């Protein structure tokens, strides 16, 4: 795949009374390409990229993205890699405005107990760095649960696989691509 300017034409989307809708997506500059973006292009999913200048001193990456892009915190979702007590791993996708409920996540997975995976496990299984973990294009395909609050919005924002770059897409498309299920997994 060429990492120069890339133009993708998606056609024949049937929406209501509209027979055909043409959507163009333009991805510029090779440094914006990530495995997550490659998957979206391969699968011909409609998405939009949003860039912002990442502050290396920021600790709450999702909140930084929401603030710098001027987006409600409830629409920006963080990707968390979870470890089970039996060594299994999964992905939780929750709004940055909420914490992950470990109890609800364990229930959604039908596991006894879960905890956040350590940084090395996250990097090994996802191929991404902390603060830039995308649920798309991970090295290992893991069971994925998306907080059900995401269906209230036409689109949500997730990491594009690097700090300072967010993908906007529908939660339904995200669920399809990650083979995820929706569940109530957020706490306060």
UniProtKB/TrEMBL annotation:
Its EC number is 4.2.-.-. Keywords: Lyase, Protein biosynthesis. The keyword Protein biosynthesis applies. GO terms for molecular function: aminoacyl-tRNA deacylase activity; lyase activity. Belongs to the prolyl-tRNA editing family. YbaK/EbsC subfamily. The keyword Protein biosynthesis applies. This is Cys-tRNA(Pro)/Cys-tRNA(Cys) deacylase. GO terms for biological process: translation.
